[in-house]
Amino acid sequence: MAAAAAAAVGGQQPSQPELPASGLALDKAATAAHLKAALSRPDNRAGAEELQALLERVLSAERPLAAAASGEDAAAAGGGGGPGAAEEEALEWCKCLLAGGGGYDEFCAAVRAYDPAALCGLVWTANFVAYRCRTCGISPCMSLCAECFHQGDHTGHDFNMFRSQAGGACDCGDSNVMRESGFCKRHQIKSSSNIPCVPKDLLMMSEFVLPRFIFCLIQYLREGYNEPADGPSEKDLNKVLQLLEPQISFLEDLTKMGGAMRSVLTQVLTNQQNYKDLTSGLGENACVKKSHEKYLIALKSSGLTYPEDKLVYGVQEPSAGTSSLAVQGFVGATGTLGQVDSSDEDDQDGSQGLGKRKRVKLSSGTKDQSIMDVLKHKSFLEELLFWTIKYEFPQKMVTFLLNMLPDQEYKVAFTKTFVQHYAFIMKTLKKSHESDTMSNRIVHISVQLFSNEELARQVTEECQLLDIMVTVLLYMMESCLIKSELQDEENSLHVVVNCGEALLKNNTYWPLVSDFINILSHQSVAKRFLEDHGLLVTWMNFVSFFQGMNLNKRELNEHVEFESQTYYAAFAAELEACAQPMWGLLSHCKVRETQEYTRNVVRYCLEALQDWFDAINFVDEPAPNQVTFHLPLHRYYAMFLSKAVKCQELDLDSVLPDQEMLMKLMIHPLQIQASLAEIHSNMWVRNGLQIKGQAMTYVQSHFCNSMIDPDIYLLQVCASRLDPDYFISSVFERFKVVDLLTMASQHQNTVLDAEHERSMLEGALTFLVILLSLRLHLGMSDDEILRAEMVAQLCMNDRTHSSLLDLIPENPNPKSGIIPGSYSFESVLSAVADFKAPVFEPGGSMQQGMYTPKAEVWDQEFDPVMVILRTVYRRDVQSAMDRYTAFLKQSGKFPGNPWPPYKKRTSLHPSYKGLMRLLHCKTLHIVLFTLLYKILMDHQNLSEHVLCMVLYLIELGLENSAEEESDEEASVGGPERCHDSWFPGSNLVSNMRHFINYVRVRVPETAPEVKRDSPASTSSDNLGSLQNSGTAQVFSLVAERRKKFQEIINRSSSEANQVVRPKTSSKWSAPGSAPQLTTAILEIKESILSLLIKLHHKLSGKQNSYYPPWLDDIEILIQPEIPKYSHGDGITAVERILLKAASQSRMNKRIIEEICRKVTPPVPPKKVTAAEKKTLDKEERRQKARERQQKLLAEFASRQKSFMETAMDVDSPENDIPMEITTAEPQVSEAVYDCVICGQSGPSSEDRPTGLVVLLQASSVLGQCRDNVEPKKLPITEEEQIYPWDTCAAVHDVRLSLLQRYFKDSSCLLAVSIGWEGGVYVQTCGHTLHIDCHKSYMESLRNDQVLQGFSVDKGEFTCPLCRQFANSVLPCYPGSNVENNPWQRPSNKSIQDLIKEVEELQGRPGAFPVSISSETNLSKEMESVMKDIKNTTQKKYRDYSKTPGSPDNDFLFMYSVARTNLELELIHRGGNLCSGGASTAGKRSCLNQLFHVLALHMRLYSIDSEYNPWRKLTQLEEMNPQLGYEEQQPEVPILYHDVTSLLLIQILMMPQPLRKDHFTCIVKVLFTLLYTQALAALSVKCSEEDRSAWKHAGALKKSTCDAEKSYEVLLSFVISELFKGKLYHEEGTQECAMVNPIAWSPESMEKYLQDFCLPFLRITSLLQHHLFGEDLPSCQEEEEFSVLASCLGLLPTFYQTEHPFISASCLDWPVPAFDIITQWCFEIKSFTERHAEQGKALLIQESKWKLPHLLQLPENYNTIFQYYHRKTCSVCTKVPKDPAVCLVCGTFVCLKGLCCKQQSYCECVLHSQNCGAGTGIFLLINASVIIIIRGHRFCLWGSVYLDAHGEEDRDLRRGKPLYICKERYKVLEQQWISHTFDHINKRWGPHYNGL
């Protein structure tokens, strides 16, 4: 048969399209077996041919796939079966053939047995939960699947869990990527040795079948791809891929069979011969030919050439790059790369003139051409990858290609193929519509390949990986270049990237850059890069595309119309494309041996900078009102310089350029610093918010060390090498404050408005201070830097651990060694900060764990300079200063208002010593002198901040002064200098004492100085003035700078005749006629020292306040104890400076003493012009107004706070000042209420009733009580499940349904209470309002559209006074609230009389002060509130009757509302009344009002007097033995009644207000019933022997006098009475075993009886407390019974408590005890004769419920997460996207899951209604947060799991281990039990049933 079948196959015509005959299909297995046998023979040619023929048939590509894909009627084309059938058939054949006739599954198992792989290699896609352990990882990209992670040992490691963004693969077992110590148990063993060799015949068929199968797949891919004009649409591609799904899945399954199968696949995929034979298209098979043509077309359309056809197309074919350029509208960009001519498209629009100038010259044209445009496929793998890219990386294909990676041979081949296709990937990515998805898939692949150093090195050497990457990046960016407008707009030749392009906006370049950064992290690769000059040139070219991008031009006239948001793209691009590769390279330049690399980079960087300066035509002046924050070339240069000096011991001067270049280098970074000051001075407001955004991003923690830090460092280097006078004058000129620096009191500023002057001057001085005192790159070690950064951040605010990690600028390159969270971070943190554990505030706002600076940090390390440098928001600087001030006040170090402290700096690295020359140059000294003088003379626009900076600079100068040096000789030889006449030398120490007599100034004619006569004689003072002072000093900064510039240029230029181009004046003069300037000469006669001393007087407000300290103690000068760190204000700063000056030079000391001796006359009062006076007054007035406002605000805040404390505090009863509702004085007959809306107070009346603001909510908290103390645990394994049948709600349900089975329905509904589930709880904030006021208030809310968060249509509102959430108003009953004190007129009536009265009162329906017939406002309101109460809960929680809508239902519901509220209050008090007192719950309680409303409605249903249980309790009836049997269903026997329910029924049936003695009477009567129930229950619980013993013992005492009060007698009587029924019978042996026989002692019996009665006594006492306003006594737990009994009047007051207390003594029988007991027991008798079991069950009422609790959660969050995040939903059996679990009952639900929706309610909302009657508490598994659903609203509550640093991790973003925070969980539980979610949580929103 087999042979025949095979022959049939061979004989069929190849062109025939139908499938082989069905007979053949029947027996695939036999055919396969036959072929396998044939192939196993030594001469297997025939077998091979036979197999080929069969495969050709089965796998023929002439399948209607193309038709199906192109959308024709697929079924018709497929010959009826549709395309799917044929595919399946082919797959079946393949499986059969592979298995060689055996079963496919057995075959799989057999192959798996030979799996030698020691790698895990599990591939996952996006959103998979994986782990990363930094301790074990060698590569930063290392990741592990959960299984390998949990099976390895990572205790104490730095690991985290993360959700994969792009997908990944498990690295377990790969020692290239991670340390072996971290491998899991499965992959630790190197297993290749002990796995047997694969038998040859096992995989023999695979080697034949698979090449055909893969070729078939490739043909499908070729067929399916149609190249339409605009790129194939998503839809077409997806269609093809769907059809191929089974084939690719089949391949994927093969890879999972392990190493043996993978090596076969590798052979197939990489074998070049196979590929050539099958695909060359040279054979006669038409189908193959056609597919080959399609393949060539696809290649061509991708802009790629197939090398053989070079002549046909090639040179003429424009590359993809250019065609896309034309589309993008930037015509004439640099054409195709290399030496190909620009294509025609460029020339059509040559007007740009850019196409002609090729700026990008790559090292060799031909090579790059081949990188970009040539692809030749030699194997299946290569073409498969080509199609994978073409189809934009379908997930299935990616997974298949990655699953193969554990095979080493494949890994190398695949990496090479990937690199070969790199340019093509880039082109496809650029065109893709779904670039995000595609980027993720690319990185998913490349990160697996390039993280491995060995592999990366190999590919770099063999495939020119670096060349390819750099070229591809360059090529990619070239498509979006525009002309730069920086500096010289018309003639600029520089091009920059356009940040508005999609390429940059959408970060499309990200995958390529990330690969580049990844390979540069390998040392061997980075070294090749740094050695290759050509590459460095190309790379600098690439970086220069970003130099000067996103240029901002200051808007001077109107506000910019459209604020562009491209700036973020620019910052991201510079960080990712420039800075991160730079950090990668820097990490390999750490040692001396790498000096050469640094020299290379610096050299090419300088060349690129020089080109850039030429391209933008830059000479010496930057263009005004322009700034770009992007200078990557400057920053590369700066960072490599820093590295060279710090790590490589290079001589700085050897890598610095000449002076002229330094001057150019300094300009742009300085421009940025000046612009920052301008932006903060609001000079750029017309540019919109985005410019502020740029200024912030520039200093923000992720960017600062790649942006502002290198800029400042570069300026420091320039300052240390350039002429200091030139540098200082440049700074002031850039900051536009030159005109301000004049001695005159008025000046004219041509470039700045007056209102900006002050902040710009502050900016300039602050910049100088930062420049001179920052040491980040000038000598600090890494640990010192980390410490300084951390201190700065902590001083601004307390921080959480994660925000600190985020705020400390990390070195962006992960391999740099400074990993946040590394050892050094933690140790520094513990050294500088204290941990504040999370605390709770009563309002429920949750704190996180915070770190706060230690005291010694404030004392010695607080550094304002660092704080200013690092603040994104200016307010943080203020915040740091405030905290510092608070510390000094608290520790008593300084009482006043301190100035920023002066801090000694780390010493400078010798290379940068020149920086300090800035402090010793005349220009700076003149500026300081001028500013001191102006401050002393109170000129306008100067602030304390300016003075602070001036003193800081003077102090810095004194700290860093060289030893006394005479500067006079230096100035002799040089040309005449401008400032020689001011100061003799350049040393600050000597210049300080130099007196300046006259100064010539230019002033407006209106200035006061002009009026003065010029001085008659200009003789100098005889004090230390060394020069002839015949001339007055002139000072012009600008002139000085020009002159210096000229000198430098002349010195550096070879031709002396070089002329500086004349400066075109860019200064615009203010509009309007400016006053003319004239020259005036001022008499000054001061030196810096004398100014300082006068300043001291001015600051202290006293004359002669300064007294030189050394006059008393000369020691001070010899070794001045100047601390490293000094606190204090301006006065102390001046004293410090004078002391330092005196100690550094004897001359200074003498002069200071002399100045102090001359008694200084007071500073002359300044002549103030009227205009100035006006502005001064205005300032003062403003200041005063500001202070007043502050005061008012503070007062208001404290008022508000105290109000909030009284009104809002829900959780802490201690500090509560209750709002009294009830007035305690019994004299007041009418209760008076205040309306919080209209403010009037008065009684509540019929016509205008007052009401209490209440919140009604359904609650199932009571139903969650259980009878065991241990709270249930949340299930975390399949075995643990929670069953709800031991909850209070379940037990009550069972009881009610049992009663309803055997007794009359209407009577059952009076025997129990409902509301354990879905009971209505009423709570109030205690405020009252008129009901008509409330209605108008609601109207106004309805019209107010703004208020969201609650629904006015549902009657919700917030209390107008305390803003507490509410939804109804409970009317207050008119009349007195507390009846005149009942104890004052004790009623002496006997209990029998009282019983009669009670009965009569209950029988009178009209006993109301208000008759129901007359509809008053009050009764209407009572009805409406009753409706509200009913509507609060769902129907199923109200209707328990068998006849729906029966009045008994309403009756039951109403008294149950009272029961629910009493029971809940008991729970809030902790389950007992031992604490006594009127707790807040009492004062805020609305039970009194609620009772009136309920009573009013209960009286509508009068109980038929025959059924009134009161009769049965208080009267003996003649017993009619027949009675029980006649009726169909008897009444519920009185012993089965719930006594507490009876109590509420009796009281609510009485007319209100109730008299105290009636209440006591009802309680006494009910207690007798309760006690009898207790005895009956006890008798059922005990064993047969006990019963008979008690029966006899009690019978003996029956005749004693107080037999009715002896429990023994009563018990024995009950037993004997119940014996008559069959209650105790049919107790076989099994019963005794079940009720474990406890030995009952008299004590234990007494305890049982008391415990049985206690719940009733508690509820009754609470009720009495609310109705009659009496306080509850407090007591010990053991005496609770007796105290409550006497409080209720059950105990006679004269009762002695010497002998042990007996509960029976409380009994007060209204009728003879034994008779009534007989009567009660008789009712049971008739029932138990028929149903003994049920009879017994009903007698034992479980009354001891423990307090309700939420489920107990495990310590570690991971246990919950691992179990639930993969758990399938019980409804739809899928794993939910957002799983959640209910914390009340443990049910697993899908949040927002559409699968589980029922009638438009999603599962969480539905569950909250079923489980909590509208309140649900859910833990969201994937986010670790808790969400609360309350009715139609929901809120995020927060998390009860915190990490080791006390922080939440919402959405598990950080993935650190989380631990339960017991306090938080307690708070959550407390809010649940007390029903205060609505009040405490603020952010509520509607959920529209969608959760």
Describe this structure in words.
With 1891 residues, this protein is an alpha+beta fold. It is built from 76 helices and 30 strands. A six-stranded antiparallel beta sheet has the order 24-23-25-26-27-30. Helix 4 packs parallel to helix 11 and helix 20 packs parallel to helix 23. The longest helix is centred in the middle third of the chain and has 39 residues. It starts with a helix and ends in a 5-residue tail after the last strand.
Provide keyphrases for this structure.
alpha+beta, three-stranded antiparallel beta sheet, disordered N terminus, six-stranded antiparallel beta sheet, 1891 residues
β-sheet strand percentage: 5-15%
Q: How helical, in percent, are the residues?
A: 40-55%
First and last CA, distance: 64 Å
Number of strand elements: 30
Shape: flat
Question: Which structural class best describes the helix and strand composition?
Answer: alpha+beta
Strand order of the largest sheet: 24-23-25-26-27-30
